[in-house]
TrEMBL record:
PROSITE patterns the UniProt entry points to: RESPONSE_REGULATORY
SMART domains: REC
Alphabetic keyword roster: Phosphoprotein
InterPro entries named among the record's database cross-references: Bact_response_regulator, CheY-like_superfamily, Sig_transdc_resp-reg_receiver
Protein name: Response regulator
Positions carrying 4-aspartylphosphate: D59
Keyword Nucleotide-binding carried by entry: no
Organism, scientific name: Neoroseomonas soli
Annotated Pfam families: Response_reg
GO BP annotations, alphabetical order: phosphorelay signal transduction system
Lineage, highest ranks first: Bacteria, Pseudomonadati, Pseudomonadota, Alphaproteobacteria, Acetobacterales
Amino acid sequence: MTQTLAHRRVLVIEDEALVAMLVEDALLDAGFGVIGPARSVSEAMALLDAEVPAAAVLDLNLGGETSLSVADVLTARGIPFVVATGYGAAGLPPGHRHVPVLPKPYDPADLTATLERLCAGR
């Protein structure tokens, strides 16, 4: 698809294997590179220490633990991200209310369009 996005690597933070696979497939089909998926906060932090993604897809609930600390790190490092969650925007703390939210289940085209917007100009 869009070749200009091929160098844009997106960190996927999702604990559900099937959802992670669908996200990865959608990103690859849209021409993005994929980092991960990270299935826990510790995995996400390790991947962030190893590489700087162009953007991230963040599930708020990772196996019962909140990923808000990952959101804090992404924000502090200036890495744009989209929250993909079943909780909707109401689950975001005040410091992250500006972040785009895709309520699960979402259309993969909505995800890739959101990431294209987030990566524009980066």
